[in-house]
Amino acid sequence: MRKKMYFEQPCRLTKRSQPDASDGTWSHFGLPLGNGRMGAMLGGEVFQEVIQFNEETLFNGGPLADQMYQHGNASNRGEDLQEIQALLLAGENEKAAMLCQQQLVGLEAGYGAYQNLGELVIGYQFAETEVSGYRRELDLDQAIHRASFCVGQNQVRRQSFISEPDQLFVHHFSSQTAIDLLIAFQSEHPYRLDQTEQGWQVKGYLQDNQLQFAFELTLLFDQGTLEVSGEMLKLKECSEVTLLVGIVTNYAPDFPKYRQSLPNQRLIEQITKGRQHRFTMLKQRHLVDYQALFNRVDLQLVAQEQDLPVNQIITNGGLPLAELLYHYGRYLLIASSRIGGLPSNLQGVWNETNNPPWGSDYHLNVNLQMNYWGASGANLVETVEPLVAYVEHLRKPGRLTAAAYHGIVSDAENPENGFVAHTQTTPFGFTGPGWDFEWGWSPAAIPWILENLYDVYLFTLDSIYLQKIYPMLKEATRFFEQALVYQANDGNYYSAPAYSPEHGPITLGNVYEHSLIQQLILNTIAAANILACDQENVPKWQALTKQIRVEEVGADGQVKEWFEETTIGSVEKYQDNHRHVSHLLGLYPMHRIQKTTELATAAKMSLEHRGLGTTGWSMIHRGLMWARLGEGAMVEQIIELFLTQCLNQNLFATHPPFQIDANLGYVALVQEALVQSQIGYLEIFPALPPSWKDGQIKGIRCRGNLKVDLKWEASQLIEIIVTTEKAQKIQLVLPNQMKQTTVLTQGKNDISYLIT
């Protein structure tokens, strides 16, 4: 079971000549560490290690970035929206589209981007220069970066990790021969550096919004002498040292200021506690915390595997790479999303520049959703908590957007009257549409992200969790009760104007928006019934769902993307092979389209026409849809294409450029190929790739609060173990050739199974 990524050469993460420049080294060869809140990228250099740091809340933009920061909203566009809706109802789409680009756009001012905090530079002054036996690795089983090598006859070892329980970056260096170390900090942001007892503290800020940060380093050593020269630390004649780094900012997820006092005392306490624990105890505490999550699930596709460097694994491809990438995805999710913090952004928690692609923000038109598609199945439901909190914190600014563009006002009498957000969001409550309608307008973004949150309930059956997310479901439903427009001709309600990401015409409704809106209302109804609340609203919500047009079959036998569509390509601005397949969300991530229906046949036709995908995340999304259709051969083809075309040498997936969504989405794809549970029963091997002939997976979670272990040989299921916490009846669906399967149970359950 491959859970280590190793290289035979170091990576030079040197300071860039320009703060926003990148030569690709960082995203291709650096190895990431993280504890959800802090991120670090290491290259394992021999004579000078550059460790690049991030902190998840270090965003510029937002309040104080612009004195008129309005969360991206232009003012009083409700009448403009009504005019556009009237034009669409009258069939004057071209005129409506022109006004959309003029009137239904937002403000770029204050948008901002995720920032690179800075780099820690450690110079190792070895007496010799001949290096041998070099190896650096990222141990996924322990979340530890290691580098080991000889300089002459001197054996050198380094270990680094970021502890979640202690909130510290820990770097341990040991050498057979005492040497001198030079340590410096560098950042593109203004800062002041002050000496402490055994290190220094850096206090800095972002220039546009004055967000403050503090970065403190302390050294633990028993041998050697510490000298301070300006902003340089020099540790002389040292053979073993531990560096502890803590980081805090004064960001707070509190609308509208998003600030708190800089928690410097908390940082001091973290450093002080870390000094008391020392390296061995810090490492043990880190392992207990991390492995309690990572070890819940295990996948094995290769019985015996050679110890090969990553570049060779990538070259060889196949099962070893497929298995390793699954574990890497789980590692990255744990490293970038932990309780109490922000969710994983477009790049997880890692970023080398101050002007990253798309701001390294939170995109709600597939990317943030994909980050969490695999979380529940991988038994990492705790990692979803930051996403729940993030969506909750969009509600207050989202009400401003609802008022500015839709005239839907929340006031003292009706404080939760509806909220909305669009394609791009930030930790500062940026909920307005983007500054270009065709990529920025997407009111269905909230229903889509709420589909993620509701699906977590289906996995856990946790009523306390459902009570937590229900107010979001209800308020979003309340928004669309008022935002949809009625067309008397057919007696239906429409989302208008509607735009299918990110191509085609602007229309009166489309399948993308309507399927999400209808599903939101259905989920709200289901939640209200489970929680026995709002029963007076359920009948009107049920009636509304029946007056929303959703998936339809077109003249070519395809799922239509626009209601005006007849044959494929019959609408203006349609782009063949477009990376988005938003009209098929009913297939995945929703489970509106079941594989034995006419719509499933139409979805298959649409997927075949659209192709295998143009970017990393696009391939993964298509793979998930093919898995729902039960097409294991297509899943394998897409995985092979993804493995050969979309991975950097450090296994970061590319859009291009690097985005974390495909890495995390791949976890979901593996799980969907092995077991599905979206329509009331467990289906085993619904889309098993043909080359995955032998293997096992343990600890995978399924809807209904089930845990499943599978073992198979020669593509035959040998054993399945289903574990439950509460008494329930479970139906298994097994392929016809697997009649000899042994079915074992743990817990209180009653299992029956079908051979199909």
From TrEMBL:
Residues of the Glycosyl hydrolase family 95 catalytic domain: 279-674
A Pfam family annotated for this UniProt entry: Glyco_hydro_95_cat
Protein name: Glycosyl hydrolase family 95 N-terminal domain-containing protein
GO biological process, one term: carbohydrate metabolic process
Gene3D superfamilies: 1.50.10.10
Signal peptide range: none
InterPro entries in the cross-refs: 6-hairpin_glycosidase_sf, 6hp_glycosidase-like_sf, AFCA-like_C, Alpha-L-fucosidase, GH95_cat, GH95_N_dom
Coiled coil segments of this chain: none
Glycosyl hydrolase family 95 N-terminal domain segment(s): 26-252
UniProt domain Alpha fucosidase A-like C-terminal: residue ranges: 676-742
A GO term for molecular function: alpha-L-fucosidase activity
